[in-house]
Write a structure and sequence with these properties.
Blueprint: E1 7-13, H1 18-30, E2 37-41, H2 46-52, E3 58-62, E4 86-90, E5 94-96, H3 101-108, E6 112-116, H4 127-130, E7 143-151, H5 158-167, H6 189-200, E8 206-208, E9 214-216, E10 224-227, E11 232-234, E12 242-244, H7 261-271, H8 292-306, H9 308-313, H10 318-342, H11 348-360
Parallel strand pairs: 1-2, 1-4, 2-3, 6-8, 9-12
Antiparallel strand pairs: 4-7, 5-12, 6-7, 10-11
Helix pairs in contact: 1-7, 5-6
Length: 361
């Protein structure tokens, strides 16, 4: 019989992603997850490995960073890690704000549980040749590979097929290495997974997770932080389960730091006294570390990255801040509409016939 411990988490990280990885692991444990967390080590430093080994739930699995351009192309490493039961594949730029058991339950019922991607109509006929698909890919909802959960008993060949498809594009640049967004392999492992699902699996194999349970980075500013200690937050009145810091630069980098809910929760998960993995402050970038001078540096980064208006709004009470942002965005829409209307007044040449006609009246 299936139990709450019949699954395992799998995530990928390298040295630059270490802060995000620790925040993810600590958030999973804070949410009550006691399952193993297997980390595909794609270039962590010895010091970082030592810190991770202080948590008995964490298992490091070495991967060769020299074979790939983007660590995400190892996303399906659960295949070579002898996965069994439910495999839960999750990105190391995510923070979990509550138990993921409801999503795992979808996988336990036999579905391949994943979220629809924000751009959910991505599709390329070239995928058939690139990934050696059995059939031409059909058009269906394009999913995000940041969170995928499924039973290896129900879908025994999916991990291996995904792994082989990723191998086919190890040398292909992704958008992170400068590839065009409309390249058929710009989304790396995500393109590989979707191509397989669109060709070799039935449409109803996918069990879409509730869209409101994941909040992407571009919506972080509309999150309401209720309790940083418990990671309680709201988005449009709903309690999400995952905050996904997609795209670059990352929030733990100076160029990506922003005074939003994800950043507040990330610092709590890296510096809190009750977290499972404690990171020495010397291993944290100045934008994250405690102390007066790091605080000054943070404010400077916030101001630079957010702009003065957004920076000021971020220090209002959460509810007031969110309402103010909606008002600001609405006023901006009106401004742009008006500016567009009057930005290109009719030229004198086009007005001439009208003037001449009016002179003849």
């Amino acid at each position: 019989m299936a139990t709450d411990n019949d699954f395992c988490f799998y995530t990928i990280s390298n040295a630059p992603y270490f802060p995000g990885l620790v925040a993810l692991i600590n958030s999973l444990i804070l949410a009550g997850h006691t399952q193993p967390i297997r980390v595909g080590d794609c270039g962590l430093t010895p010091a970082q490995r030592d810190v991770l080994r202080t948590c008995r739930q964490v298992e490091l699995f070495p991967l060769d960073p020299g074979k790939i351009k983007n660590p995400g192309q190892y996303k399906a490493f659960a295949h070579i890690a002898n996965a069994s039961g439910i495999a839960v594949i999750i990105d190391s730029d995510m923070i979990v704000t509550g138990s993921l058991n409801p999503l795992v339950a979808q996988a336990r019922r036999g579905g391949i549980c994943a979220f629809a991607n924000p751009i959910d109509d991505r599709w390329y006929a070239q995928w058939k040749d690139i990934f050696a698909l059995q059939h031409p890919p059909r058009r269906q909802t394009y999913i995000c590979s940041g969170f995928v959960a499924f039973s290896t008993d129900v879908w025994p060949n999916l991990l291996e097929r995904w792994w082989r498809a990723c191998e086919a594009i190890h040398s292909h640049p992704t958008y992170q290495e400068g590839s065009e967004w409309d390249s058929p392999t710009a989304q790396s492992d995500q393109d590989a997974l979707n191509a397989i699902l669109m060709s070799e699996y039935e449409v109803d194999a996918i069990s879409l997770a509730p869209v409101e349970k994941q909040v992407y980075r571009w919506d972080f500013r509309f999150l309401e932080t209720r309790d940083r200690h418990t990671l309680d937050c709201r988005f449009q009145g709903q309690a999400p389960l995952i905050l996904h810091a997609a795209l670059t630069s990352k929030p733990w980098e100076e160029r990506g730091a922003s005074n939003d809910t994800y950043f507040v929760f990330m610092r709590r998960l890296l510096l809190g006294p009750d977290v499972a993995i404690k990171v020495p402050p010397r291993m944290l970038a100045s934008v994250i570390a405690p102390g007066i001078w790091p605080w000054v540096r943070r404010q400077s980064c916030f101001l630079k990255n957010m702009g003065i208006m957004e920076f000021c709004l971020s220090y209002l009470p959460p509810a007031t801040c969110i309402r103010s942002r909606y008002v600001k965005d609405r006023l901006r829409e009106i401004y742009l509409r008006v500016r567009g209307k009057y930005a290109h007044p009719p030229s004198a040449t086009r007005l001439l016939p009208e003037i001449q006609a009016s002179d003849q009246v």
